[in-house]
Structure formats: C-alpha cells, structure tokens
Write a structure and sequence with these properties.
2 domains, 35% strand, Tumour Suppressor Smad4, Rossmann fold, alpha+beta, 6-stranded antiparallel β-sheet, 281 residues, 20% helix, 7-stranded mixed β-sheet
C-alpha cells in the first residue's frame, strides 16, 4: 500500500517570492488532511509565529518538503538521513539537481507524493572522519587552498595504499549524487546515482596526467596535507568549513545510511541531465 503521510515539515529558502509557493504547498496539505509545521525561515515568510528550528525539522515528521535550491536541501539532509524521513525537493533555485521537481507543478507533484505515486530514490552519502569527529556529505567533501595563489601538496591513499602525491588547488571527493556539483565543474565525470562508487576529482592539478577517478564505494580514502604554512580548508557539502593544517588527515568512506529522496513518477535521470545542462540545445 502507498505510504500515508501524516506529519510534514516545510523548509524554504529565505526569499520573499517563495511565499506564494509556500501557500500552495500548505493548501495541498490541508486539502489532503496532512498535519504540517513550518521551519523558522518558512514561518517568517508568512508571518507565522509558531515554527521549528532548522535543526529540528525531522523531529516527529514523516515527510520533509523543501522549497528552494540544492543548498536548502543539503542543509537538512543529515537530519533526514538519521531519522530516515523522506525528502521532497521543489526547485526554487537555479540548477537544482537535488530539488529536481519543478515549482510550476508544485501542487501536482505534492499530490503525487501524498497519494503514494512518488518514487523513492535512495542516495548514498559520505562519512568524513576528522579530528575525532564524524560528518556526513550528500554531495561532496572538498580540500581546497585559501586565497593565496600557491599550490598545495596532498597525499592520497586508498585502503592504506598510496595512490598519489598530488599538487594543485585541492581535491574533491564526491558521491554519484554530488558528481553534478563542484566535481563536474572541475572536470569530473557525471555519475548516475545508481552507480556504486566515490568520485575523486583534482582541482587544477599541477600535473596534466592526474585525472578524475572513480573508486569502489567500499574503499576508504585518506587525504593528508603535506604543505606547511598554507591556509587550507575542508568543506563539507558547502555547509561546514574546517581549517586543515599541515600533516592533518581526513578519512572518507560511504556512510552506512542512505537518504530517501522523493522524485516525481516517471522521472528519468538522463532526461533530467539533458534538461538541466541544456544538452543538444
């Protein structure tokens, strides 16, 4: 039987023109008899005084609705994964690979979700271990130099074996989902979310022979900084930026839990690529 959703939370980007779509979503939820709450930003757009803080959106929810861009989606991904709450993203941003459903068909798309016709697309994440703490990334983990125009030297190992000492601006480790984000802009391959693997993409490598690589998703990748006195940062999904110092190391592997992402019925990933990237136009 199709899943019956009872408690939805709406998360929105902080732009005033989103209010129109918020009202649309609320109208559909009310019509379907689905209890709903607003995250703080969404509540502010409508002048509502009761709200959920961003870090509490998955609490007691069985559906999270995102009205915004991929950044808004990424900001709640960790919570959704931990609580195993499905997320439906409607694109009010620019490119929007995570928020793949169109704002113009919001009412129809939300109705499909509530009557069980939406499809769950399970997405893998990366686990990042650094300084005794663990983080998760739905898109990517980036080791990148600061503003000074100097290269950094990184030691990359896979399952304890040395892969390379890389010189350049940094490196991107991405999931297949994140292959269409920073990685593709840096020359990495586009990888279908159905593929099991981790994408390693160098950023402006000093050697032209250092090419992007896809490794099995059972691998553990370690990146160690070998350059002293260099302002270097580890960025996780564009949400957290952590200083990365000489001889420090991050370890990256696939996270044991997956994200249940809802997509419209009949969604075709390759058609989505064609549409978002304007292929053949």
């Amino acid at each position: 039987m199709p899943k019956k959703y009872e408690h939805a939370v709406i998360v929105a980007k902080p732009h005033q023109d989103v209010a129109h779509y918020l009202r649309q979503a609320i109208a559909v939820l009310d019509e379907q008899g689905v209890d709903h709450a607003l995250e703080k930003t969404a509540a502010g757009l409508l002048g509502v005084t009761e709200y959920r803080e961003r870090e509490d959106v998955a609490r007691d929810a069985d559906l999270i609705i995102v009205l915004g861009g991929d950044g808004t989606f990424l900001s709640i991904a960790r919570q959704a994964v931990e609580a195993q709450v499905p997320v439906a993203g409607f694109n009010l941003g620019t490119l929007g690979f995570l928020t793949a459903m169109k704002k113009e068909s919001l009412a129809e798309g939300l109705a499909h979700i509530l009557d069980g016709r939406a499809v769950v697309s399970w997405r893998k994440l990366l686990q990042v271990d650094f300084r005794g703490a663990s983080y998760t990334a739905l898109n990517d983990v980036v080791v990148n130099k600061g503003a000074i125009a100097r290269i950094v030297k990184l030691l990359l190992t896979i399952d304890g074996d040395t892969m390379a000492e890389m010189k350049g601006d940094g490196v991107i480790l991405s999931t297949p989902t994140g292959s269409t984000a920073y990685s593709v802009a840096a020359g990495g391959p586009i990888v279908s979310p159905d593929v099991n693997g981790i994408v390693i993409t160098p950023i402006c490598p000093h050697s032209l022979t250092f090419r992007p690589l896809v490794v099995p998703d059972g691998a553990e990748i370690a990146v160690r900084l070998l350059t002293q006195h260099m302002d270097t940062v580890v960025t996780i999904d564009g949400q957290a930026a952590l200083p990365f110092n000489y001889e420090e190391e991050i370890r990256v592997r696939v996270y044991p839990k997956m994200l249940p992402m809802l997509v419209a019925p009949g969604t075709n990933y390759y058609q989505l690529l064609n549409e978002k990237l304007n292929w053949g136009l």
